[in-house]
């Protein structure tokens, strides 16, 4: 299959000329600037859709994007069909996209494939016109399937993380040496910072992340890192973890005597040195999220972080400005929503203590919902949306926070849907542009 190649040009030039090379067999030829020029006080809203691979909703067929004006995004009479007209971003599977705060740029680190670990930067010019700049490839440091996010530092920095497959200390050349007492399973963790302005690598650090001797003897270890967040002081990164327990006797992966308390990695910033682990006693879930941000610095200067896969349903945890968990802050989404087994698929902080959470729960694991959350009062209210069968936010990534408004895309797999505008101040919900869909596909974000 041929690859689409574009020459990157500056924003001032891209609106008048884009140069396209060959395109892949399954993407349409670009139509340069089909959208009308945006107003001075407007911005581009980029929609992202995941195409099916082998099964409906798996998102493994690649990702397409298409940009419209904010005015059109809010117009329920406006219709978008990105699967007919969209631009295919470089990605073997679902792209993990980030956007600049003004919507002028998209960033992606390719996930798996021959270019896995490649940082790509796209200039947003409206419609399916995207200028492309190929940046650094970080695969030699964080592998071809890194997890990454953009820091909220004025679009300057991205952070990619990875942990190699954990191995036992008594495995030598792939074989267990029974003369060596078992002590732990560990992988090599790497934290790497990226210069998003120049699409280059800043620095990286690699280290093991030991737990307590007792925890490691029981086979507990860090399986994955994800969703870094920069603290208010700008001197520490807090990185979410996904924990696992491997039975030292059998090699099977399952929790034998219960999960550990929720953990996160803390490293110095910008050096990325001095790794330490912090533990919450409030919950036992993971803090890695999946495809989107999982932790945010709120207006009060504290970090709020969601949990997944725990035994108590998802929680929102609080990390104080001392970079330690505040175990006096207990916010259970099960309790707040009146459900059991809640699970945060994706969420976004909107400001002034308000956030929007996409979630499912026990008995409705394949059905996505949206809740308006108040971090100060520790309350949550389900947002009234058309919750059709097939609406699943498990791969959802992108939210746009524009003043008091939060824009999201709501489409069941294979069905049409809409953009919805959620007012974080009033709680009101307004229907926006119609999103045309195709069988097996779904929209995964607004940027």
TrEMBL record:
Tell me the protein's name.
Answer: DUF4374 domain-containing protein
Record's keyword terms, sorted: Signal
According to the record, the signal peptide region is: 1-21
Source lineage: Bacteria, Pseudomonadati, Bacteroidota, Flavobacteriia, Flavobacteriales
**SUPFAM superfamilies listed in its UniProt record:** DPP6 N-terminal domain-like (SSF82171)
Which domain of life does the UniProt lineage start with? Bacteria
């Amino acid at each position: 299959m041929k690859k689409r190649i574009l020459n990157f040009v500056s924003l001032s030039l891209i609106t008048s000329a884009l140069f396209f090379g060959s395109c892949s067999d399954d993407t349409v030829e670009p139509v340069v600037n089909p959208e009308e020029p945006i107003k001075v006080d407007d911005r581009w809203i980029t929609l992202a859709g995941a195409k099916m691979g082998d099964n409906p909703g798996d998102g493994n067929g690649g990702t397409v994007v298409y940009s419209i004006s904010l005015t059109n995004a809010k117009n329920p009479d406006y219709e978008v069909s990105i699967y007919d007209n969209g631009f295919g971003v470089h990605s073997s599977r679902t792209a993990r996209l980030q956007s600049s705060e003004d919507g002028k740029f998209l960033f992606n680190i390719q996930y798996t494939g021959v270019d896995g670990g490649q940082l790509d930067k796209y200039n947003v010019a409206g419609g399916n016109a995207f200028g492309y700049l190929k940046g650094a490839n970080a695969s030699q440091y964080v592998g071809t399937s890194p997890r990454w996010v953009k820091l909220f530092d004025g679009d300057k920095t991205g952070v990619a993380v990875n942990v190699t497959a954990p191995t036992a200390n008594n495995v030598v050349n792939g074989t267990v040496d029974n003369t060596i007492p078992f002590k732990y399973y560990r992988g090599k963790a790497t934290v790497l910072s990226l210069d998003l302005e120049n699409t280059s690598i800043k620095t990286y650090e690699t280290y093991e992340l030991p737990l307590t001797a007792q925890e490691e003897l029981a086979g507990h270890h860090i399986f994955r890192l994800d969703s870094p967040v920069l603290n208010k002081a700008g001197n520490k990164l807090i990185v979410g973890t996904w924990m696992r327990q491997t039975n030292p006797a059998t090699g099977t992966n399952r929790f034998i005597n219960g999960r550990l308390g929720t953990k996160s990695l803390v490293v110095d910033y910008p050096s990325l040195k001095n790794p330490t682990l912090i533990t919450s006693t409030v919950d036992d879930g993971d803090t890695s999220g999946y495809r989107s941000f999982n932790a945010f610095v709120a207006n009060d200067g504290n970090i709020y972080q969601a949990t997944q896969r725990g035994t108590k349903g998802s929680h929102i945890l609080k990390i104080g400005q001392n970079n330690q968990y505040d175990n006096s802050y207990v916010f259970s989404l099960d309790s707040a929503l009146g459900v059991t087994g809640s699970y945060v698929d994706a969420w976004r902080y909107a400001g002034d203590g308000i956030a929007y959470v996409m979630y499912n729960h026990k008995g409705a694991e394949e059905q996505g919902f949206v809740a308006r959350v108040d971090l100060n009062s520790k309350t949550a209210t389900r947002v009234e949306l058309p919750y059709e069968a097939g609406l699943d936010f498990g791969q959802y990534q992108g939210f746009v926070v524009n003043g008091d408004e939060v824009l999201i895309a709501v489409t069941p797999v294979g069905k049409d849907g809409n953009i919805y505008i959620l007012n974080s101040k009033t709680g009101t919900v307004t229907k926006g542009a119609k999103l045309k869909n195709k069988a097996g596909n779904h929209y995964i974000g607004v940027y």
